[in-house]
């Protein structure tokens, strides 16, 4: 019956293209000549460098940190010297430049300090969370939210179930699949530690049914552990979405506008679980990640373990370079990934894939009029009406778009994928969201300005009134004195 | 390599609107060819006239509105003309056919703003306009005179060759003899060009379902909406009300269920809305056939329900994922 059981309404089965790289074992990429570490995070938080140009840094050394916990610390992935701190292209599709630490490799690949192994289960919850924060771990599934903060929030909300996301529903990507096969023990133990850190009763590792080898490996790794469960979920995009995974695994739905922790459930990615294991067991910071380099535009698709900060150009050359027909570079999967603006873009912590796509794969065609076929509505996993949202967004009726559920949209791209008229629906939604945010911050700014202006006017009025009162008081005083004087004079003269 | 900004997703399922349209036309081929076989040359002329004049009208309207002519062959205009032809009597005067096609494209589609904007199904709108303006020609049903294979060879009836014609009553007319369901399936009786054989329409409909061009909700709802009241009233007074099977297999019901009510542009998009729309169509067909004076059960019903589509779409939206009815209480584990 599994073939007929759909865990949630909507969703699509995009062509997988996983065969390019699913049999490629994870290769460790030798550290490149230079790495580029951006000092600004995806969410805009700035980091300040703790090293200056000319300093020599060691692998795993803390090189930048932020003002608070939302800014996760950055560690050097290689041994070398700080060559420069300058504006450099980032992974943002606009090609915007951010302040970047350029570290030159000195060829030594050993860790700069001994990270002694410890028994992490002996650590208290607070200490575990602090270590995870200090290790600079962010969610490696793509969103890049600081893991320590997410865990702390979950602990405070008394989460009882931890779900580890091994869905990997994006086409092409196979890095999580390979990671689960080759590092099943790390993933399982990392999940166990995370569950312990937040006081969850059990951890469920959810894997899509198109990854039998991973399921097998995890089941073997977790065989002796009663608090870890491996659960098979159907292959359906977007299974990687937190809400949909929770529905598929537990049957519960997270109400719109609320967070999964309110149901007592927390979701983390398998790669994050592995990073947490390394941080707690070996006290190792996050300095590398597994990613898939794939697409018909790549000579040799691979799964690579790469140092953070490696440039796209270095990755491409490690994979035999581009083919003649390569047309577009994408960071992440083809559904939600973003165009890479330059081959010199460095890989940051949240990029799980590098795709070189050809025109045949992208199928970017001229868009036509909407024929209201309703396929976007049927495909939408959130139960929205994408074509209505797009129609309202196009004419800048953002209220109308929100009325049709713009705020609930995951930007998963299922609607655009099925649209026979090739309408760039997701583009409309991201644009509308950007506009709404801009309008909201403008409104906040002007509200603040109005508040300040009013306060100033009030203050000035108060001061003026005070002065006037003082003046009046003085005048009254003078008058009184004058009157007294007069009275005195009169009494004197009358005498 | 292009480094310019582009929005995701960077892949696509590969369907296009015009491939959907042409698949619908492909699905109409069995019943169309059967119509030509039964009604002969005059039917062929009607089909050709309707299609060609629809394309001509589309071209003129695109030019007039300043739209690129490249969308002329997206299949939508051809489909409109084709559907109109299938809904007409097989020997309709050709100038009336051409007028209908022009009306369908110019008023039914472009007056609303072109592809995807029209409120009413253009073919049905034209069909009803013609019926009201030319009631005699539009109810001049010709007898089915398919070629017969005899001992001397293929016997081509002069009526089939379009030289002359004999009128006949359709199964739904009051004076018509009761036709067996079997006959309605195979369609050897008078009627519109492409509506006489339920079997061949069903074949096309199943093709569309298989190709996922349409989903099963609207056809099922239309057939249920018609069959349920028919069953009920036939059970109460069998001599006064037609049986459900006669209702289902006669006239344009199958064509409406699979090809006309499922028109993407003019039907609701949510599953809930499609149920309401389909059941409404079916029920109206039953009411108009049983109690109305016009023979146009299908065309009127579809147009009336088309008018309700924006309302249905507004009020019957899909539920946002995770939202629950108000009476539902969440248990915390």
TrEMBL record, chain A:
GO terms for cellular component: plasma membrane. [4Fe-4S] cluster 2 binds at residues 380, 409, 412, 415. Residues 462-495 are annotated as: Disordered. InterPro entries: 4Fe4S_Fe-S-bd (IPR017896), 4Fe4S_Fe_S_CS (IPR017900), Ion_transpt_RnfC/RsxC (IPR010208), Nuo51_FMN-bd (IPR011538), Nuo51_FMN-bd_sf (IPR037225), RnfC_N (IPR026902), Soluble_ligand-bd (IPR019554). [4Fe-4S] cluster 1 binds at residues 370, 373, 376, 419. It comes from the Bacteria. The lineage of its organism: Bacteria, Pseudomonadati, Pseudomonadota, Gammaproteobacteria, Oceanospirillales. Its cofactor is [4Fe-4S] cluster. It comes from Reinekea thalattae. This is Ion-translocating oxidoreductase complex subunit C. Its main location: membrane.
From TrEMBL, chain B:
It is an enzyme of class 7 (translocase). It is found in: Cell inner membrane. InterPro entries: NqrB/RnfD (IPR004338), RnfD_bac (IPR011303). It is a multi-pass membrane protein. Keywords: Cell inner membrane, Cell membrane, Electron transport, Flavoprotein, FMN, Membrane, Phosphoprotein, Translocase, Transmembrane, Transmembrane helix, Transport. Its EC number is 7.-.-.-. The chain crosses the membrane at residues 20-39, 44-64, 84-107, 119-138, 193-210, 216-236, 248-269, 275-292. Pfam families: NQR2_RnfD_RnfE. The modification FMN phosphoryl threonine is found at residue 170. One of its GO terms (biological process) is transmembrane transport. GO terms for cellular component: plasma membrane. It comes from the Bacteria. Its cofactor is FMN. Its main location: membrane. Belongs to the NqrB/RnfD family. HAMAP family: RsxD_RnfD. Part of a membrane-bound complex that couples electron transfer with translocation of ions across the membrane. The complex is composed of six subunits: RnfA, RnfB, RnfC, RnfD, RnfE and RnfG. This is Ion-translocating oxidoreductase complex subunit D. It comes from Reinekea thalattae. The lineage of its organism: Bacteria, Pseudomonadati, Pseudomonadota, Gammaproteobacteria, Oceanospirillales.
């Amino acid at each position: 019956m599994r073939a007929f059981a759909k865990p949630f309404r909507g969703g699509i089965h995009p062509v997988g293209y996983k065969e390019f790289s699913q049999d490629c074992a994870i290769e460790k990429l030798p550290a490149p000549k230079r790495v580029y570490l951006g000092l600004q995070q995806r969410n805009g938080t700035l980091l300040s460098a703790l090293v200056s140009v000319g300093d020599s840094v060691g692998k795993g050394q803390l090189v930048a940190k932020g003002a608070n916990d939302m800014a996760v610390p950055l560690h050097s992935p290689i041994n070398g010297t700080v060559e420069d701190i300058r504006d450099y292209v980032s992974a943002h599709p606009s090609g915007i430049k951010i302040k970047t630490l350029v570290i030159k490799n000195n060829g030594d690949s050993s860790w700069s300090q001994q990270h002694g192994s410890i028994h992490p289960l002996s650590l208290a919850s607070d200490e575990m969370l602090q270590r995870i924060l200090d290790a600079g771990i962010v969610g490696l599934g793509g969103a890049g939210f600081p893991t320590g903060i997410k865990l702390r929030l979950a602990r405070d909300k008394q989460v009882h179930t931890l779900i580890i996301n091994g869905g990997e529903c994006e086409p092409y990507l196979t890095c999580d699949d390979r990671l689960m096969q080759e590092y099943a023990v790390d993933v399982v133990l990392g999940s166990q530690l995370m569950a312990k850190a937040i006081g969850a009763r059990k951890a469920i590792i959810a894997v899509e049914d198109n990854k039998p080898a991973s399921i097998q490996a995890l089941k073997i790794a977790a065989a002796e552990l009663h608090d870890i469960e491996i659960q098979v979920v159907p292959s359906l995009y977007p299974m990687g979405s937190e809400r949909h995974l929770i529905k598929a695994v537990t049957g519960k739905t997270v109400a719109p506008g609320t967070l999964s922790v309110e149901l007592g459930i927390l979701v983390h990615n398998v790669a994050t679980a592995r990073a947490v294991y390394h941080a707690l067991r070996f006290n190792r910071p996050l300095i590398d990640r597994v990613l898939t380099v794939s697409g018909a535009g790549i000579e040799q698709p691979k799964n690579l373990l790469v140092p953070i900060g490696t440039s796209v150009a270095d990755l491409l050359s490690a994979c035999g370079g581009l083919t003649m027909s390569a047309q577009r570079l994408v960071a992440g999967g083809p559904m939600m990934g973003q165009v890479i603006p330059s081959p010199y873009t460095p890989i940051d912590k949240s990029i799980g894939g590098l795709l070189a796509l050809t025109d045949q794969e992208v199928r970017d065609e001229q868009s036509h009029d909407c024929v209201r076929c309703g396929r976007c509505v049927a495909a939408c996993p959130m139960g929205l009406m994408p074509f209505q949202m797009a129609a309202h967004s196009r004419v800048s009726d953002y209220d109308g778009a929100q009325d049709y559920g713009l705020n609930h949209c995951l930007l998963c791209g299922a609607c655009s994928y099925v649209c026979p008229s090739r309408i760039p629906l997701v583009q409309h939604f991201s644009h509308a969201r950007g506009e709404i945010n801009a309008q909201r911050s403008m409104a906040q700014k002007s509200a603040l300005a109005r508040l300040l202006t009013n306060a100033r006017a009030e203050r000035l009025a108060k001061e003026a009134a005070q002065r006037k009162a003082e003046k009046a008081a003085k005048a009254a005083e003078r008058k009184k004195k004058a009157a007294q004087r007069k009275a005195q004079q009169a009494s004197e003269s009358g005498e | 390599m292009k480094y310019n900004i582009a929005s995701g997703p960077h892949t696509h399922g590969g369907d296009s609107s015009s491939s959907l349209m042409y698949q619908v036309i492909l699905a109409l081929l069995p019943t169309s060819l059967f119509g030509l076989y039964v009604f002969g040359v005059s039917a062929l002329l009607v089909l050709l006239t309707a299609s060609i004049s629809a394309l001509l009208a589309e071209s003129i309207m695109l030019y007039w509105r300043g739209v690129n002519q490249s969308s002329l062959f997206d299949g939508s205009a051809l489909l409109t003309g084709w559907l109109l032809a299938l809904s007409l009597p097989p020997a309709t005067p050709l100038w009336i056919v051409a007028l209908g096609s022009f009306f369908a494209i110019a008023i039914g589609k472009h007056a609303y703003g072109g592809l995807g904007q029209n409120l009413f199904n253009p073919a049905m709108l034209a069909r009803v306009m013609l019926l009201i303006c030319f009631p005699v020609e539009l109810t001049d049903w010709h007898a089915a005179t398919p070629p017969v294979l005899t001992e001397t060879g293929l016997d081509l009836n002069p009526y089939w060759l379009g030289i002359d014609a004999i009128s006949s009553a359709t199964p739904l007319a009051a004076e018509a003899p009761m036709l067996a369901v079997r006959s309605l399936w195979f369609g050897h009786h008078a009627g519109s060009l492409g509506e006489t054989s339920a079997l061949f329409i069903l074949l096309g409909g199943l093709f569309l379902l298989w190709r996922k061009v349409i989903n099963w909700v609207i056809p099922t709802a239309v057939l249920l909406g018609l069959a349920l009241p028919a069953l009920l009233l036939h059970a109460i007074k069998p001599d006064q009300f037609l049986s459900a099977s006669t209702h289902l297999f006669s006239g344009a019901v199958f064509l409406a269920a699979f090809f006309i009510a499922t028109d993407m542009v003019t039907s609701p998009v949510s599953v809930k809305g499609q149920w309401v729309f389909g059941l409404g169509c079916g029920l109206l067909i039953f009411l108009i056939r049983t109690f109305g004076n016009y023979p146009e059960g299908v065309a009127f019903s579809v147009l009336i329900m088309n008018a309700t589509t924006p309302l249905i779409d507004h009020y019957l939206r899909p539920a946002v994922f995770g939202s629950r009815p108000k009476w539902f209480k969440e248990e915390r584990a």
